[in-house]
Amino acid sequence: MSLHAAPLAEIPTRTAELVRIILPKGNTITQLRDCFGAVYSDDQFRSLYPTRGQPAYAPWRLALVTIFQFLEHLSDRQAAEHVRTRLDWKYALALELEDLGFHYSVLSEFRARLVAADQGEMLFNTFLQACRDHHLLKPGRQRTDSTHVLARMRMLNRLELIGETLRVALDDLATVIPETLCQVIPAAWWARYGRRVEEGSLPHSEPSRSELAQTIGEDGFFLMTSLLNDTALNPLLDRPALAMLRQVWLQQFQRELSGLGVTQIKLRAQEDTPPAESRRCTPHEAEARASIKRHTRWQGYKVHFTECCDEAGPRLITHVKTTTATQPDVQVNDTIQTELIARALRPETHLVNAGYLSGDGLVESQARGIDLVGPLRESSSWQSRTADAFDLSAFVIQWEQRQVTCPAGQVSTMWSERSLSWTRRPAVQVKFSASSCRNCSLQSRCTRAKSGVRTLGFPDRVTFEFSGHPNHRNTDAGRHRLPAFTGFTTAQLVFSPTIQILRPSLCRT
C-alpha cells in the first residue's frame, strides 16, 4: 500500500445535521472533534508507507479510530463495526452516512507499521501536544505508579520451557535448511517436537518427567554440537531462536565429566538457576521475565504511568515507560524525570509510592528542581520490627568525628566509605569492636550475627540528612521531613475519559 496524502476532509453536512439532531449536547467523541479538530494529519505517517502501490486508508482516521478503540475498550472487529454504524464516530472521522469504513485487519496492520518504524508513541505524543496547545496540560503536580503487563504467552513450567525452546529452534532451522535438518536429526524427534509442547501431553510421574527432561537436554546439546561441528552451519547459531536455545540450556542444564570420561547432562536444581532478572521464561519473547510483587505473580513486563494531578486541570497521562518485570521501581525514577524534562513537562512536585523513593532519588530530584514526595520505606531489619531491640535510630552518628555511639555508650572502631554499585553514590559502613560487643549485656537486643559484632550501614551524609531518614533524629545535623503520601493504584489513574484517550498501546519501545 502507498500513501496519497490528502487535505483533511470537512465534516459532511448531512452527517453533522443528523448528529446535532440525535446528540444535541454531543458526547465525548463529538466533543473531542469539536475541541481538537482532526488532531492528526496524513503527512505525519508518510514515512510508514511506500511511494507506490494501492492507496492506503487515510492514516489520520486510523489514528483516531485507535484512540476511540482504547477509549471504549473495543476489539479491532468492534472498532471497525463502530466506524460503519456509529454516527458520532462518522462525525469525528468526517465520513458520509453511507460510508462502509474498512476491514478490521487494517487496524492491526496500521499498528504494525507504527511499531516497525519505531513510532509507537506518535499517537500519544501528538495528542498530548494538542492538549498543551489548548492549555489543558498543567504538569506542575504529577504522580507515578506502575502495574504489571502480561506477555503474549501462557506461563510455562521448566519441562514445557525446555521442550518448547527446542521445538522453536527446530522450526526456525526448518525454514532455512530443511533438507540438511532432515539428515541431521533422528526420526524420533518428529514425534517428540512436531507440535507445541504442553503440559497435557507430558508424563505425570516424576521419574518419567525427569527422564524426558534428560532426553530433551541431550537432544538440545546434540543439535548445537552438530551445527558447531559444521563450518557451513556455524552462522545459524547466531539466529535468535538458536541464541535462545543456548541461553536456556546454559541456565537449565549442566554438563559433568564422569570418572570414565563420559559427559553427563543434568537438569540444574531450581536454586542453581540464574536470578529472575536474567532467567528466560519463554522462547517466544526474549525480554519477558517472571516477577512477583506482593501477592501478584506474572510473566511479562512492567509499565510505569505518570499523570498530572493538579486539582484545577484534567488528569492527563504525561509519560509511559515499559521495563522488564524484574526492574525495581526505584531504578526508573531518574529516567522518568529526565524524559519529562526533555519534553518540557518538568513537574514541580512528583508524587510516588515507597517503591520509587530513595535518598539518592531525593537528592537528584532536588538538583533538577523537583520536589519528590512519597512515604519512606520501612526498615526490613529484625531490630526495627522488635519492640525493645536497637535499630539504627538508637545509635548516635557524629559525622565530623566519623564515628557512631551505640546505646551502651561504646564508640565504633571502623568507619569506611564506599560507592554502591547500582547508584554510584557513597555509603558508610560502621563496625564496633568484638570485645565491646561480646561482653555487652545488651547484645541480644542489638545483633544476632554469628560473630557477635554489630555492624551498621547507611548512606552518605547529604543523602541521609536530606532524605529525612527515620533514624535521623539522633544525628548531629538538622532535619528534613517529607509530607505524608499513602500512594495510589493504577486503577485510580483511570477515572476520567481523558486518561483513557491518552492511554497508549503497551508495545515495547
From TrEMBL:
PANTHER family, per database record: TRANSPOSASE INSH FOR INSERTION SEQUENCE ELEMENT IS5A-RELATED (PTHR35604)
Domain of life: Bacteria
Domain Transposase InsH N-terminal: 24-113
UniProt cross-references to InterPro entries, sorted A to Z: Tnp_DDE_dom, Transposase_InsH_N
Domain Transposase DDE: 405-454
Annotated protein name in UniProt: DDE transposase
